[in-house]
Amino acid sequence: MERLSLKGISRNFGAIRALENVSLELGAGEVMGLMGDNGAGKSTLVKIIAGNFRPSSGEIRIDGRKIDFHRPIDAQRAGIEVVYQDLALCDHLTAASNVFLGREPVRKLGPLRLIDYPAMHRQAGQLFAQLKSETRPRDVVRRMSGGQRQAVAIARTLLSKARIVLLDEPTAAISVRQVAEVLDLIRHLRDEGISVVLISHRMPDVFSVADRIAVLRRGSLVASKPVRQSSPEEVTGLITGAIEYA
Amino acid sequence: MTSTLDSAIAQSRNRGPLSHLINHQVFWVFLAALLACLALSVMTDAFATQRNLFNVSRNFAFVAIIAIGMTAVIASGGIDLSVGSTVVMSAMVISVVMAAGWPFWIGAAAAIGASLAIGLINGVLIAYAGMPSFVVTLGMLSAARSAAMVLSDNKMIWSFGPDHDLLLWVGGGSTLGLPHPLFALLALTLVMAFVFRWARWGQYVFAIGSNEQAAVLTGISVRPIKVSIYMFSAFTAGLAGILMAGWLGSVTTNLGTAMELTVIAAAVIGGANLNGGEGTVLGAVVGALLIEVIRNSLILLGISTFWQGMFIGTFILIAVAFDRIRHMQR
Ligand SMILES: Nc1ncnc2c1ncn2[C@@H]1O[C@H](COP(=O)(O)OP(=O)(O)OP(=O)(O)O)[C@@H](O)[C@H]1O
Ligand SMILES: [Mg+2]
To answer: Which CATH architecture has domain B25-329?
Structure first.
């Protein structure tokens, strides 16, 4: 049974048809590269899976169960986590605080409930070690590199025992060395059996880490196939419309 | 891997407490206040007298108490311009209730209740209606003072019924040589320093100020927390209002006028970041201390108090410049 399956998903914004009858499937521990031109509907699709938007029509199933998210927190409870490039970290807090934000471990002291910082730092350290990242739990996020920030965001998804992780352009605006770091993080997620959807405009990233590739063009899905059966040339053609469908 | 982690942590500790201290704005503000005190003790006979120190510590306590509430608001990325009006509202409510013959504690409860109601209205309009805190609390600044005028018919109240002496003792008295407002400040400082660091609520205040969108996405109940922040700010103003009523022994409707500016100045000088995400309880207290010491020194040195605004303004600019420089280093 597929981890995630979308059937006939459409979404309108007023007169704009951002997604048109999109159906696709993603297995456990599979990495899907989602590509497409600007405005093709990639972010919209991710936001629908993450519960930010509801589809105008169509159905979403996770492990065969039909789901209907009204808010992002519903999707999180179902094991779906999103990693945004810049959106979701608090710059003034430490790496550990960000990883645990909203689910801090507490220790009881009489009637008081205190945040258990030692446990938080220890566990965050373990998660970063698991991701082979040099991020330090006590460092303030503001002073971190783009790659380290991604590690913090991705460590959050490990902590929540996510089953599906959606990454919206995680490698935009970071250096080449940091890109390699983020791709490694994605491989670690896959090794944990987590299904990953990676949105990217960077062909080399997708081809180095993805198992499947999906292409959106003006709201319609024009390809969804194993990476091995495709090529950068074909994908470029699919994105621009030079190739109608594959 | 773990070993590099541990060594990295150890390294960050090895930078030592001194450099840690020097990196904190609170340290410099405290140093400035301390130097001013020392200079004044040498230059004037009047400063280091028990009477003067008593007055200084009491006066600064009022501003410091509200500055702690303001720091929570500023750290969450907002501003509360209505605290001065909340002070007069609170003072007026306790005066009217006590003058009508009710005991002190009922008057105090009514005053705190009225203050919390002001905070609740602010918070709901900001968190649920999505209105900017600047605009909402600017409206409240006007509305709450007006309500206090209506309540008192704009008359001075100087007789507080059967518990008259108790109110004066609470706000104006002293124990062990220390003015009572200072005890209230001390308790509030300890509790809130603890809450900011160890309670989830404190953590969320800073998270909201740092990146509200992120806080929402992590599932934190941002709206109720924002409401509680404005209620806390109003609570501190209400507390100060009760103490000020007792200290002055009379309440008029211009009590607390322009106090919001002094309070915001104290918070900002103490390191609260108007962009949100930063601020400390100790900073607010020390910022308030510096402002009061400056005010006091101008009086003692016989300099026109018209200069006070110039000094406070300069310190605000220095504090913000200091913050810019610190961020440029990184
Ligand atoms: N909230 C919204 N309201 C109205 N229109 C929207 C909204 N979100 C997206 N759209 C429209 O839907 C279409 C698809 O947008 P989407 O953000 O999904 O594209 P994308 O593939 O992520 O593009 P990019 O590569 O630039 O991020 C665009 O035409 C966009 O203008
Ligand atoms: Mg997008």
So the answer is: Orthogonal Bundle (1.10)
Q: How many CB atoms lie within 10 A of CB A157?
A: 27
The domain segmentation of chain B, as residue ranges, is: 25-329
pLDDT tens per residue, chain A (246 residues)?
A: 688 999 999 999 988 889 999 999 999 889 999 999 988 899 899 989 988 888 999 999 998 889 888 888 888 888 898 887 666 799 999 999 999 998 899 999 888 899 999 999 999 999 888 878 888 999 999 888 877 888 898 888 888 888 999 998 877 766 777 788 788 888 988 988 899 999 988 888 899 999 999 999 998 999 888 989 988 888 889 888 888 777
What domains appear along chain A, each with residue ranges and CATH number? 4-79+162-240 (3.40.50.300)
Closest chain B C-alpha to A246 CA, distance in angstroms: 36
pTM: 0.84
Burial class for B84, CB neighbours closer than 10 Å (0-12, 13-18, 19+): buried
- Of the partner residues B200, B215, B219, the one whose CB lies closest to the CB of residue A104: B200
Partner residue opposite B1 with nearest CB, options A102, A104, A132: A132
The residue of chain B nearest to residue A124, with distances taken between CA atoms, is: B5
Out of A9, A11, A12, A16, give the residue to mutate to test ligand 1, the one with the largest number of ligand atoms within 8 Å of its CB. Answer: A16
User: Do residues B67 and B285 make contact, with C-beta atoms less than 8 angstroms apart?
Assistant: yes
Spacing, Cα A47 to ligand 2 middle (Å) = 10
Side-chain-facing half-sphere of B196: CA atoms under 13 Å = 24
Helix axes of B180-198 and B222-248: crossing angle, nearest 10 degrees: 170
Question: What is the value of ipTM here, to two decimals?
Answer: 0.79
